Amino acid sequence: MSFAYIVRCNFAAPAKEPAWNAWYSGPKIEQMLAKPHFRTCQRFKRIVGPGRDYLALWTVASPDAFRSREYTTDWGFFEWEPFITDWSRDLFDARQAPQGAFEVALGGALRVAALDGLMPAEASAARADIARAFPDLTWLPVIGLDRHTPLIGVQALADGREEPANGPPAGAAARHVSTYRPISPCHRARR
Q1: What share of the chain has pLDDT > 70, as a percent?
Q2: What Rg value do the Cα atoms of the chain yield, rounded?
């Protein structure tokens, strides 16, 4: 894997939410995976912790994915945009992560430590605190797009109920770490 493109948001129209999820997990993913450099996508919904309700984790082969004509002329939430709130889209360097490191089985979960709005020194201190509770997070530095967080920690969990060995999170971990359940399988580009 080369780069992780993470989109996070909330959805403000509960009556329309099932239709939006069906669109995003189906036609939207297919549309994006047909574009150059897009490789995989899996969607998640937050089950515990702070942060946005939805997360889509895409893998792309190159930051050029966001400069291609196919992407720049056809991206976004289209008719769903009025209902999307707290939207962020960040590109992270994941070149040190092994292929498939963030794919989660449908019974599993994704642990995410998002250090939104922190300056680099603050993020470094928070990362050290979080690492005490969650030492197996893979930390990814932001390299592009909206840059809502200077770095993000991600860990695929085999069991969605997994808790840290040393008890419930406290300190920076309680303020920044969330757990998401998958709401789609991991989709792959057909190239």
Answers
A1: 93
A2: 16
Q: CATH classification of 3-188 is 3.30.70.100, yes or no?
A: yes
Q: Where are the domains of the chain?
A: 3-188
Angle at 153 between CA 119 and CA 61, to 5 degrees: 100
Both tokens assigned to 164: 């840290």
> DSSP letters along 86-123, please?
EEEEEEEE-TTSPTTTT---TT-EEEEEE-TT--HHHH
Angstrom distance (rounded) from CA 6 to CA 80 = 18
Alpha-carbon span 117 to 16, nearest angstrom: 30
pLDDT tens per residue across span 148-173: 999 999 999 987 665 555 455 667 77
CA gap 25, 6 in Å, rounded = 15
